């Protein structure tokens, strides 16, 4: 099983020297949000992209993550009918299976 995270390419690049990724979602850090937002599948990721990233002009990446060894909790945000995986703690770069350019479905 893998989970997905939508990332600004610049944020992913900035994480490389540190060995871990600490961006929760667009414009918010792990420290600000308390966890890193993720998606269960590509359909959920496309929905997030359409709702929150539609005005972003910077390159986006899909991070495919192996959740083994991570503190991942399935949670339903207030006001949502969907359950999302939330990663508690920084994301080690070694847990990222691939980082590929995001293209809308």
TrEMBL record:
Alphabetical list of InterPro entries matching this protein: DUF952
Membrane-traversing stretches: none
Pfam family, one: DUF952
PANTHER family named among the record's database cross-references: BLR1139 PROTEIN (PTHR34129), DUF952 DOMAIN-CONTAINING PROTEIN (PTHR34129:SF1)
Protein name from the UniProt record: DUF952 domain-containing protein
